[in-house]
Amino acid sequence: MTVLAKYAKDITYCTYCPRLCRFACPVTNAETRETVTPTNKMNLLELLRSGAVQMDAGVADIFYRCAGCLTCRAYCKWRIDVPRVMERARALAVEKGVQPECLNRHISTFAEQGNPYGKALAAKFNALGLEDRVDKTADTLLFLGCTTIFHFPDLAKAIVKLLDAAGIDFAVHGDADALCCGTPALYSGAHKDFESAARRLKSKLGRYKTIISGCPSCLASFSIKYPEHGIPQRAAVLHTTELAAQLLDSKRIKVREPFAQSAMYHDPCHLAKYFGIYDAPRRILSALFEPDRVFEFSWNRDKNYCCGGGGLIPVTDPALSKSITRKRLEQFYEAAPDILVTACPTCERTFHRADPDIETRDLIELLAERLDA
Ligand code: SF4
Ligand code: SF4
Fold first, then answer.
1. Residue ranges of the chain whose pLDDT lies below 50
2. In the chain, what are the domains?
3. Is 86 in the pocket of ligand 1 (CB under 6 A)?
4. Most CB atoms within 10 A, among 33, 182, 196, 247?
């Protein structure tokens, strides 16, 4: 299969690997079956490449059993990017029309509305009251991302508050037909729709020097996935935690007083593993909490563990997603801090869904509450 030729080296390395990253894969650990190990998912692709098996619904299902968490790569001597290859395998499934049926609505909503939430997303954006900042002339663009707009309006307002407190001149991205970066289309395998979203956004983003976002997947799309699909955009990307840590270090913002509670920080996969951003969030945490009130997961930084929300698994297999989340939360329950802190709207939503009794908060929202005006 010629479309897989580009990934031949990756597929071969994994196929003949003695499953060195198996122990770390959250999907393998949750399902406890060999078919879904990184090695065997890639081995199945090798069989497809050689023509020994054909793509059908059963084969496609295996390629959707990847959270895109990059934990295999974190332990891989050759730094093989398994999720990138799974994305291509999912595109082949969609081309054949054998993707999991439960994704069909997700795919058609994105194709029609340019986001996974449908028409309601534009109304949610309008309710933020940011229209004066849309298309404003500035060097910096705030790209909120669809999950923040839809589920976390208070986080959106907290980011705006932070930028205002630092005196940053910025515009807000508000194109009603392109409020999503395209990640949901990419992971579903609808690559034509992903590339249309990327092309549309590229023309909008190109006029800014810097794009700020609190969503690690938006940033990964802009700086990694768009170029992988031949649609590079020029602006530098900055996560809100990187920006906030810089602002604290330079004293452009100050924290009034630390929280009295304790906190445990969950590293979002894409933030830690695509971008290596794990020190900046901890610098913010140390400004917000007393040192003896900050807890760490043992799987942390660039060797963290998935929250269960990645790779569209909450859509394709909600029970699997919950099982991964439960595994992640074991240490949280054991340490029993007051707040679970993260820096990704998808992680926050996944934890909220799994256990609404846990106080799960975004780091920037906590920071905004404590800003010394
Ligand atoms: S990602 Fe690396 S460690 Fe994991 S199976 Fe492939 S080659 Fe082996
Ligand atoms: S990216 Fe995560 S879920 Fe996917 S194969 Fe690697 S470790 Fe498993």
1. none
2. 2-99 (no CATH), 103-244 (3.40.50.1860), 253-369 (3.40.50)
3. no
4. 182
